[in-house]
Structure formats: structure tokens, C-alpha cells
Description:
The protein has 2 domains: 6-116 and 182-320, 3-Layer(aba) Sandwich (Rossmann fold); 123-181, Orthogonal Bundle (Histone, subunit A), CATH 1.10.20. 49% of the residues lie in helices and 12% in strands. The chain has helices at 19-29, 55-60, 77-93, 105-113, 123-136, 138-148, 150-153, 161-174, 208-225, 227-235, 252-259, 265-289, 306-317, and strands spanning 6-12, 32-36, 63-64, 97-101, 190-191, 194-205, 296-300. Helix 5 (123-136) crosses helix 6 (138-148) and helix 10 packs across helix 11 (252-259). The longest helix is centred in the last third of the chain and has 25 residues, at 265-289.
Amino acid sequence: MPLRPHPLLVITGPTGVGKTALAMHLADQFPVSLISADSVMVYQGLNIGSAKPTDTELARYPHALVDLVEPEHAYDAGQFVTDAKAAIAGALSRGQIPCLVGGTILYLKALLDGLDQLPGADPDVRRRIREKADSEGWPAVHAELSALDPGVADLIHPNHSSRIERALEVMLLTGESIRSHWTGEKRELVIDGRVMDISVLSLLPVDRTRLKERLDARFDDMLNAGLVEEVMALRARPKLQCDSPSMRSVGYRQVWQYLDHQLDEAGMRTAAQAATRQLAKRQLTWLRSWRVDSATAIDVAEEVPVAEAMQWARESVKHVL
């Protein structure tokens, strides 16, 4: 007989909304195995700026896919799918309920909805894009993408070179938005012969203005906790460069520019806070259109909505408890 579907929990939402704190509350009540879906926490040494759980918290609440790769290395959605599937399989083998936690929607979408076949890379098109980036900067390339494909450009930070390059390349090669190649239908996720019964919880801020204020204050807390010193230590790694994928992360880029004297301290703080707010806006844009027919949305005010999330979890896992 085929095995009964097994629950797979997903907790997502914009940065700073309380996903990690809620996941740890969940782990106190349910036999869950936490799996990070965060594109910055995957890197070793990027602790303060990623709001990574502390060593004490990780000892009590282990998270798979945290501190997975060194910061010099690139890491993408395809690698995440491979690693996340292995982590889910490990949870199943231990009799635990896998629980993905994070706001990197591209990673979650790649795992849960599948990776689509995209046009192959074209060296001539990429050379033209990179020549423009070298002469005018990636924000100028982003502006070109925005003129051709504004919907996608709104989802990509003006300095995220690899994503800008790929989206513009697909548009120039095919005349179609890269979004037309994204899967529109949910696909069955099967891990070790078990169909995953996916339950998505989206944490959404009640007050966007209040979220912005909390994000600004959180970056100040990161600075007070030693973010500049953390980036200084990272800069000492010989192979790590300002354009390494890890250093394009929000906060790290701006501190690196500050240490390169491209920004003064006030300018670094302002730029990083603005970039963090833009990240939250892009995540909310994703969540407005991703799995809206099946995801459970819980409004978040000042406190993490523990009681509501516990009820969601109980309903999602009741057939295996």
C-alpha cells in the first residue's frame, strides 16, 4: 500500500516578522525538525547581519542548512533544493516533522513548486550585460530590466547582479518575462517515497509602518552587537570579495562599502536600513501571489502570534500525532 502523506510545515514571511522565534516556540510543543530556508543564514560567519539564531539557541533548537557553506562560495536555489530534500529525508528517518523556516521565497518556491527549464545562457548577451554593468553599474542594468520587465524588476534588488543578469538575459533572448517560465501549478513533492502534505503559514505584518520602524531599530541593534567588526573579520578572508554572493546580502554590502570608504557611517546606516525595508517589500510582493489559495496567513502586530500558530500546527500534523 502507498504510504500516507506526511506533513511538511513551512513558516515564511518578510524579514523581521518573527519567523525564527515562532519556529522555536513550535519546537517546544511538537516533534519538528527545523530546516532553514534563508539565503544568508546558509553562510558561515554571517551571524549578526543575518539575524541567525545564537549558538545557545542552535544548540537547543538545531536548524539544518545553517552554516552550511563558507562565505566565499556561491549557493543557489538548485543547491538548496538538493540540501533541503536531504534534510527532510533525515527528519522523516528520525520520525520527526520537517519544518521549513525562512523568507527566501525563491528557495521555497523551487523546492515546493519545482524548478523550471529556462533558456540556456548566451555568452554574447551576458557579455553585453556585464559590459554595461562594468561601465554604468548594476543599478543601470536593473533600470533596463525595469523598462522591459517591470514586474520582475520589482522583485529583484538593484544590486543583485546574478538575478538581474538572468532575468534580463531571458527577456532579451526570448522576448518573454522570466516569470512566464515559473511554474504556475503546484507539484507533488515526494521525499523517500512519501508524498509531502504541505502546510504553509505566512506571517504578515498588520502595520507596515510599524514593521519598517522595527527593521530600522533591528539594524541599529546589529551595529551595536558588532556587525562592523563581523564584516571586518570576513574581509580578512583572502578569497572573499565585495562582489561575492554572500557579501551582496543586505547589510553586509553597505558595511563593506563603509569599510571601503565609499559611504560614511551615517550613509551606511541609512542605505542598509533602506535596503532592508526594500527586501521586506519584495518578500511581501511574493507572498501576495504565492500559494494564496492554500496558505494560512496570520497577522502579526507587536507580539509573535504563538497561540494562532500552535492551532495551525495542530491541525496540520494531527494525523501523525
